[in-house]
Design brief:
Layout: H1 2-12, E1 17-21, H2 24-39, H3 41-50, E2 57-62, E3 65-72, H4 80-94, H5 98-114, H6 118-128, H7 135-150, H8 160-179
Parallel strand pairs: 1-3
Antiparallel strand pairs: 2-3
Helix pairs in contact: 1-4, 2-3, 4-7, 5-6, 5-7, 5-8, 6-7
Length: 180
């Protein structure tokens, strides 16, 4: 749930602001209000203006440092908060190393397909393909993480097929964490 994701963010990323607005105008106003002390008024306004009516949420970074998760409640879907939280986790783990993110994304995509989750892999790829360049890899993985949380992968009631997939994904992630 969004409440649990926000609690996680507050615990694991204590300096990260959580910005929620009920409309585009309100979201932009909240961005400026909450971030001007950290970023300065001009930079906070730039961040606010970059948030569009097409955006459901956004993880905001300055350099590699996360500063905010922004949610437009009017546009948000049930997995938006989880998706943006995964953006923070991926940034922390990979420090914007697109080569490693690409390798992980490709390994996860292959495992999804090999485990009979080709439709999910196709959905994630279509989502990620909306983005340019290296951003696609983190977007794919963040959407995958959000799907695990919001998309029927209940850890207490996994099907055999889901258990098999999760075991293989765990092996992939453990392999990557040894290298990082």
């Amino acid at each position: 749930s969004a409440k649990n994701a926000f609690k996680f963010v507050r615990t694991q990323f204590p300096g990260v602001e959580i910005v929620v607005g009920g409309s585009l105008a309100e979201t932009r106003a909240q961005i400026v209000q909450k971030l001007r002390g950290k970023l300065g008024l001009r930079r906070a306004q730039e961040v606010a203006n970059s948030f569009t009516d097409m955006d459901r949420g956004q993880a905001v970074f300055v350099g590699n440092k996360p500063v905010a998760i922004v949610i437009n409640d009017a546009m948000a879907q049930s997995n938006t908060v989880a998706h943006e939280t995964w953006e923070l986790i991926l940034n922390e783990a990979f420090k914007n190393d697109p080569k490693r993110l690409k390798e992980l994304q490709q390994a996860v995509d292959k495992q999804l397909r090999d485990s009979g989750f080709g439709l999910l892999a196709n959905k994630l790829k279509a989502f990620a393909d909306q983005y340019d360049g290296d951003l696609r890899y983190s977007e794919y993985l963040a959407e995958f993480g959000a799907t695990l949380i919001d998309g029927g992968f209940n850890p207490n009631a996994l099907s055999q097929k889901q258990k098999g997939l999760m075991t293989q994904i765990k092996k992939i992630i453990n392999g990557f964490s040894r290298v990082l």
